[in-house]
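This part of the workshop introduces the protein records we will be handling. To make this concrete, we reproduce a full record directly below.
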Amino acid sequence: MPEESARGQDRVTAPESPAPSSSLLGELNQLVHAVRRLFGAQLHLLAAELGLARSAVSWLLVAALVATVAAVALGLTLLGLVGALLALWFHSWIWALLALALLQGLLLAGAILLFRRCMHWMSLPATRHEWNAMMRETLQRAERDSGDAGEGEP
């Protein structure tokens, strides 16, 4: 008997277990808050990545400018070195500069001929057909993408 009264007293003093529906609602509430925190963190990460991408574009342009300036400076230095070596070889600066001008003229003529050959290749019927097909496909893809984006907007 004393054991039964002790058990009865434990039942009276023990807190009642919460209803299953309220614990389920609590867990769903925690899940919603966790998902919100997760997506909030993802949005912060996306914003940080976009900021990095914007600054990366600026730095890419600066790096391209620096590379161009360095390439021009290197070219001028090499031309000066070739000119000095030609002057030593010819024992005359005038002949060295004339030879250097001739080399640069040949290089320019070669570049022009290469450009003309490439333009001729672009004008061939098969190349024109492929180029037109590629342009049409690109335009259709752009129109399809802009149409899909327009449908998603309210």
Q: What stands out?
A: The helical segments are 2-13, 20-90, 93-123, 125-152. The CA atoms of residues 82 and 100 lie 8 Å apart.
